[in-house]
From TrEMBL:
InterPro entries: PHR_sf (IPR038648). It comes from the Eukaryota. One of its GO terms (cellular component) is nucleus. This is Uncharacterized protein. One of its GO terms (molecular function) is ubiquitin protein ligase activity. One of its GO terms (biological process) is regulation of synaptic assembly at neuromuscular junction. PANTHER family: E3 UBIQUITIN-PROTEIN LIGASE MYCBP2 (PTHR45943).
Length: 205
């Protein structure tokens, strides 16, 4: 549904609002969240055909839908987001077998040929500040870090430095930066626009 219509020069702009989440999708999905995003995972087969995962960023409200063939299908499963380790757990009971899966955001991006032991639940440390761990777990974590650094040096792996993009400050405009244009001043707005509308444009050929 178009909620805003604008025009500039010989181009017309339409703003369309599309409802991605409704009461039906919420009833057939698992809803979970952390400090950064809100995750919606469909658990019914009918809804999983449209998307397999829907993530909403809490900061800017950006919505990302994942529905590719490489995405995990969470239909007929119970899912939850671990608040301490920031990993996703899924439980599936098909009758013949019971399967518990763990999805880690770092594990899926690792470039090692073998699974890194440092990312296993027994060795990973909580990402939430203030959580206490045992001395044995911290010692195993340090040994795993040293082993990872040794393997990285032997395989000549490099770490790409991610430079933080400086936030652009919005310019403060003054009245001298604007040009007042009176369109259809003596004939009203035209095409259903009011006389004070700035969106009305007369097209001439």
């Amino acid at each position: 549904r178009a909620t805003w219509v604008g025009a500039s020069s010989d181009q017309t702009f339409l703003k369309i609002d599309e409802s991605l989440i409704n009461s039906f999708s919420l009833q057939q999905s698992s809803l979970m969240a952390n400090k950064n995003c809100i995750v919606l995972l469909p658990t019914q087969c009918e809804l999983s055909k449209s998307f397999k995962c829907l993530v909403i960023n809490k900061r800017d409200g950006n919505c990302s839908s994942f529905q590719g063939a490489d995405q995990v299908d969470f239909s007929q499963t119970a899912t939850c987001l671990d608040p301490l380790y920031n990993i996703l757990w899924s439980y599936s009971d098909s009758g013949d077998s019971t399967e518990v899966s763990c999805y880690h955001v770092v594990c899926c991006e690792t470039r090692l040929e073998v699974a890194a032991c440092i990312l296993s639940p027994q060795l990973s440390l909580p990402w939430t500040p203030g959580c206490q761990v045992t001395r044995c777990q911290a010692a195993l974590h340090l040994l795993g870090v040293l082993d990872t650094l040794t393997q990285a040096q032997e395989r000549r792996l490099t770490v790409r430095a991610h430079t933080d993009h400086a936030e652009t400050q919005d310019k403060i405009f003054i009245w001298d930066d604007f040009s007042i244009v009176n369109r259809f001043e003596s004939h009203g707005g035209g095409w259903g626009y009011s006389g004070h509308s700035i969106e009305a444009i007369r097209f001439m050929a």
